[in-house]
Structures are given as C-alpha cells and as structure tokens.
Amino acid sequence: MNAEWVRDRLIQKNPLASVAAGSPWERVGVDVPSINLIPFEGVIRLYRQLARTPGEPLAALLLGEVGNGKSHLLARLRAACQQEKQAGALVLVTPPENGTTPFRYLLREIADGLRRPADEKGDLAFWHHLAALLIVESRESGRDPKRTDQEFRRILKAMRHGKGSPSKWWQQLRTASFLDALPPEVFDVAEVLVRWLPTAPEVRREALAWLRGEAVLGGRLPARLERSEASLEEIEEQSRARLIVLGALLGAVRRPLLICFDRLEDLHTPAQHAAMDRMLTFLVDRMDAALPVVLARGQFWETLRLERWNAQIVGRLESNRFEMTGCSRAEAEALVRGRLESVLGGEGMRSLFFDPVTLLETLAPGRNAPRIVLTLANRRLQELLELPARVAEDPESRLARVWESLTSPAHSAHRRAEPMRPERIRQVLRLYLFGNDTPSEAEEETALSLEQPPQAGRPARLWLVEPLFHPKAVIHSLEQGFAWLERHPGGQITYLRDGRTSIPAAPKWPETNRQLRRFQARGGRLLPLSGERIARWHAIAELYDAVRYGEVTWIDAQNREHPVPLAVLNDFLRLHLSTEQT
Amino acid sequence: MSQIGQRIANRLNAKGKLCVSRNEFFKLIGVVLARELGVSPSDSVAALNDALRRHCDEALRVVQGGRTLYVALNLPDEAFLLDKARRLTTFTPAQLALNLPMPKLRVAPALTRLLESGAMICVGLKADFTPVLRLSEPDKPTKIPPEPASMTMPDADDETALHGAFQEIGQGRNFVAIHRLRAHLGWERERFDRTILRLQVAERILLNMGDPTRLTRAELENAFQDRNGMRYLTLNWLDP
C-alpha cells in the first residue's frame, strides 16, 4: 500500500462524503464514544434503573439541533440496549397523524418496532426473545444465571430452526407462579407469544397481526382471541389494556423498552398534541418497563413545552433532560481519523500522505456539531486529493441514488414483510394527488381519508385508507364514505387496503360484508395494494421525510454541501408516482 | 491565552506583512514567544498547528497547506489576493492561488468578487484560454480592507452582556435563536459576531444549524455565518 493506493481508495470510497446520519437500525458505524456521552449514559442509566425496578415512572428528553448526532445516538442506544445484560429493545414512534386513537396507534407502533431483529444476528425479532424469556422465567426458580442464559439460547435456537414444542412451552408457562401477580389479560398475550408465534409462518403472521391489534381471520388462533365484535371505542380500550399487559410481561422478565418519540415537528393540531400528552403520560404512569424518550430540536422543544404540552409531562421529561453538546477538537480528530481508518485500515493509515489533523484546519476552535466537522473535513480532503475539476453531483442524481438504496434488494425484503402503515399510504397519496404533504383541516378530523375536489368535468373523489384490519374499523371507514356521498352525490370513492389480507367472505364478518356490498353497489371501488406497492410507497414516504428534514444532501462542484430542495423531490416524485396506477 | 495571538498579530503588523510561512514564523516570534507558545522549529507542522490553534484566538488565521503552515492576520480573503497581486505585474488565477493562507476552494470566490468590483481586470487570454489578470490600478497603493475589529482585545463585558441577553430572551430555555440575540443587543454586526466567536473558542456556547424552514429571510440573514460559509441559527450555553 502506498500513497497512490490511499488516494485511489479515498476517491473511490470517500469516508467523509456521507455526512447525513443513517437509520438507527443500521449497524453503528464509526463511533467516538465520548461524543454525546452524557446523553448516552444518562439514558442507559435510566434503562438499567428500569430493568431493576420496572414500575418506576421514568422519562427522558434528548435535545439537539440538526447535525448534532441525534440519529447516531439513537443507533448507539439501540445497539446498547441489545447488548445489555438485561437486553431490551428500542422502538421509534413518530407523532400520530390524528389524535383520536392514541393507544391503537401506540400499540401498533410498538408491535411493529418489536418485529425488528433483536440482535446483530438479525434472524429473530424481539417478540421471539420475549417469548423465550417468558419460557425460561416459567422454569426458573432460583437457578443460576448461567444456566438461565443457556436455556434462553437453547429455546431461541429451537425457535430459529422451527423445533421445540410451543404447546409444551405454553403448558409450562400458564401454570407459572409469576403470572399470578400480573393482570388476568396477560394470559392471552403470553399464549400468543409462546404458543402461536414460534410456529408455522402463516400462524406466525396471524400472531403478529393480533399483537398489533388487528382482528384475526379465525381458524388459526383460538376463536376467543378474535374479538371482531369489539367497537372502535373498545378496540382503543383493548389496545390500552394490551400495552399494560405487555409492560407487565416485560417487567416480569426485567427487559425494558426504550420508546423514542422523534420528529415532533410533525405535531400540528391540538388533537395531535393531546394524543402525545396521553401517550406519554400513559407510558410513564401505567406501562411498566417502558422508558419514553422524547427527541427534539432544542428550539422547537422550548416552544412546545411552554405553549402546547401540559406542565406535568413537561416536568417529568425535564427532570431527565440531556443536551447534545457537539464535539471537542480532540473528538473531531478522532471522528475524522476513525472514518478514514474505516476505509483504509490500519496499514492504509500508515501510508496516508497527509496528517488527518490537516482536514480540520478550517474548523472553528471550540465545540462543533459532528456534521459540521465532517462537512469541513470533506471539503479539505477534496483539495488534498487534488481532484480534477469534479463533475458536480446534482440534487436529482443524489435523490436517485438514495432512492436506489432505499429500494435495494436488502431494504426491499424487509419492507415487503412490513405491515401496511396507513398514514404512510395516505401521505404518498397526498403527494400523488396534490404534490405536497400538507394535511387540510378537514382531513385531520376525518382519519385516513383524502378528499379531491371536482375538477374540469371530473367528479369529486374521496380516498379512504383502511386504518386497521378489523371489521369495526372497516365499517367505520365505509360509513365515512357513505356520509361523504350524501354530501357529494355522484362523487367517487376508492378504498385502499392491504391486499395481502382478504376480508373474510360471509358468513364471517357479516356486517362488514353487507356494508362492502352496499359500498360497491354505490360505485365504490376497492383497491387492494400489493406487498410490492406498499413497500414502494413506504420507501417514497421515507425518502420524503428524509428530504423534508434536511437529511439528504448533495455536494456541488465547489464541494459545498446543500440539502436537496423539496421542489426537486416533488419533481422526482411526480415522475415516480406518474407510473402508479390508481 | 488570547494575548499571544494578539502579540503575534502586532508583530505581523509591525513587519508590514499579512502572512508568514512556517519558517518565517519562528523568525517573527523569536525565542521568548515561541517558548510561551510551547513550540520550537523542530516541531512538526501538525504540532505547530495544534499549538497555534490552542493559543490563538480570532486575531489570527492558521492554515495548514501541504507540508507547510501559514500564520496570517485574520483578514478577508480578498486582502491576501490583493497583497499578492501587488507584487506581480500580470498573473493567471493559478499563479495567484499559490502559497496563500487559505484553502484553494476559497480563492475562486474571492477572486470573482475582486473582478466584479473592478479591483482586478482581465487583460487577455493565453493560448489555452487561461485568463491573464492584473490589478486595475497597479500604481495606486492597494487598498487592504481595514483591520477588523477582531484585532482589538477581547471584551469580557460583551460576553457578559450576551449571556445576559441569552438569559433574558431564553427565560430558562437553553436554546435561543441567534437573530433574536442580535436584535436584542442591537450591536454592530462585527461586534456581535466577534463575541460569538470568542464564546465558541472558549467552549462556552455551542452553535447549532437549526431549522431554516421556520425563519424568515431577514431572520436568516441575522443569524451567524462563519468564515466557512456555515450558517448557525441557534446557540445553547454549555455547562462549565
């Protein structure tokens, strides 16, 4: 390896070029542990405290501005939770789009979060780990931790290979004394986790759907779990109760959840704020083993706490408030050195033809945000590499590259397995129809619908997105449609739903089927979305959010970094969405 | 600590120089100042860079370029270009860009500004179309921009006043918009910026990029922009 090799390598794979943070679910890249150490240790300390005393009411607040390393900190926290002795999980929750069903929303967000890999091996979800822990707990009575750990791993191995005996595990668990101290509803959740989750894929799918609050089709899980007659209010109440049960189970095995609320800037309406208030208060006061962590931009939080949120929850959060403080000169150097080493390796670093410190010569003294450090270091690196006048990457091609990565086979596989997120679908629909993502006032009141006024000979249209696979939720949506038709005679309605599950034919779900027939008789159109299309729309929504929050940047010919403008994204989306057939 | 920076700046002024290279630097500062700085001619460029950055405030700019290092007065980029142009009859942009105390990327924008202002003109093209430039009025002494106020001694009162404004506007909040601080204090732009820089060097504050979408154009303009062109919208006070 010589200087030429180093130069070529840095040109091919510039470790400083990507300054925007990745997803918290990706492997933690180059890490300088001392950067944002206080917030990191503060949250982990609370996590451990909760593992010891799961009923303790705790909450935390992480404040940092753009580029201060919030996403990186989340990735570190996620990895740290998974590596703790009492390994738990991190769940990311974005603000609810409507404020009317906070518990249903929260349950779904948490349940979907727990479908993610529980460790770096990546083959089993946290739900499986929880099931295995419950089985071990049912056997454990004063046995030594080493054996407990061995048993836990043995059960996971059996689950991984489809072996073991879920019925036998359930028999053991249902008589375990530790369950007696928990709420009676705990048995249903425990049974689904231990008896039905580790079985054939189609049963597992149903178990996961049940855990996120959907109705089950019947036949695979016991009929008593169906509960398809519950009203919407009852579903909300059930979701709340299920969260309490989940907390009790997590508490019993002493595995806390970090429930991180991000992107609070999306909170607009009083109903949304009220829903956040309710969710946070519930997590602190009622759900065991749950540590809500609110992440916010500093200035935005200051407004929020003074004007929008109630003093009690603000006080709770403020009592564990951590601010991100950027990095010192030494940390900046370590960050740049680490990034270079990640592509050059130790030997390559010895052949480096410049001192890495050189890269920071334009960095202001004092503390700086990590993103500033990387941006300036990258500028200087480009000079040192003496690149010929570079062809600037334009924002369009940068977007195309991000899109390619979001829809790469690795990402797509995970996305195709994800359940439909109705809010995301509506968001993309809004972009498709109106070219922006600004909800109208009317829209906020009517959950998951989208109205298109009449235009040049075309009648008014209403788009409904199925909020939940549950007979009452379907009926509620269709009823919204009928009410709208009363007001807009001759209007057209399209009902979008996850095409991977079918509404069971009569005589099951009789009222739903009756309403569906009525809907179709009035010209309503059912549009089942394929898994492929749902994955693609989820990716579009993700791209949109990343651009909106300034996380996608491009570098011009002068090596200056700019956020990709929303207008460019809109053009890009228009092109992509024009091929969507609706 | 900042006194060392000021003393080096004074010596540069006394010698009528805007900038010295590493070798000239030791002749300029002499043994006593070198000892105070904790540096010697046998130190590596990186070590020297490090020491200078630790001890010098915004009175100086320290730029490491290739194997050498430049210590210069903290003047606008154009000042260095004009200074060099004065010593050349005609020159190409590439010739002008050699051995300047600034990253190469900043030469083109500064040169463009000088061409736009008419301080420099293009007198022809070489065979390969490279432009040949000269000063528009070579006999007239080049007007170097006035010494920035940052050359004056730091004013601890300004720091205290800024902290007071921060507390008053913040009312217990620890993230305050810079444009509000600027408006509250009503200082000259340079005085405000200087104080911000000093507080950053002292690690008393952290400058944040913030969310530009929530600010008006005027508010953005009254935020803080550093010499790299980075714009900061909010700051928070760091615990001591």
Topology, element by element:
The complex is a heterodimer of chains A (about 575) and B (about 240).
Chain A: H1 3-12, H2 37-52, E1 60-63, H3 70-83, E2 89-93, H4 102-113, H5 126-139, H6 145-160, H7 166-174, H8 186-196, H9 201-211, H10 232-252, E3 257-261, H11 270-285, E4 290-296, H12 298-307, H13 311-318, E5 321-323, H14 329-350, H15 370-384, H16 395-406, H17 409-417, H18 422-434, H19 441-445, E6 449-452, E7 461-465, H20 471-487, E8 492-498, H21 510-521, E9 525-529, H22 531-548, E10 553-555, E11 561-563, H23 566-577
Parallel strand pairs in A: 1-4, 1-5, 2-3, 3-4, 7-8, 8-9
Antiparallel strand pairs in A: 6-7, 10-11
Chain B: H1 2-15, E1 19-21, H2 22-37, H3 45-55, E2 60-65, E3 68-73, H4 77-86, H5 93-97, H6 107-117, E4 120-125, E5 131-135, H7 156-170, E6 176-177, H8 178-185, H9 189-201, E7 205-208, H10 217-221, E8 224-225, E9 231-232, E10 234-237
Helix pairs in contact in B: 1-2, 7-8
How would you describe the overall organization of this protein?
The complex is a heterodimer of chains A (582) and B (240). With 582 residues, chain A is α/β, with parallel strands linked by helices. Chain A contains 23 helices and eleven strands. Chain A has a five-stranded parallel beta sheet, with helices on both faces. In chain A, α5 packs across α7, α17 (409-417) packs across α22 (531-548) and α20 (471-487) runs parallel beside α21 (510-521). The longest helix of chain A is centred in the middle third of the chain and has 22 residues, at 329-350. Chain A starts with a helix and ends in a 5-residue tail after the last helix. Chain B has 240 residues and is α+β, with helices and mostly antiparallel strands. Chain B is 45% helix and 17% strand. Chain B has helices at residues 2-15, 22-37, 45-55, 77-86, 93-97, 107-117, 156-170, 178-185, 189-201, 217-221, and strands spanning 19-21, 60-65, 68-73, 120-125, 131-135, 176-177, 205-208, 224-225, 231-232, 234-237. In chain B, β8 (224-225) and β9 (231-232) form a beta hairpin. In chain B, α1 (2-15) runs antiparallel to α2 and α7 (156-170) crosses α8. Residues 142-154 of chain B have low confidence and may be disordered. At the A-B interface, α12 and α15 of A face α3, β2, β6, α9 and β7 of B.
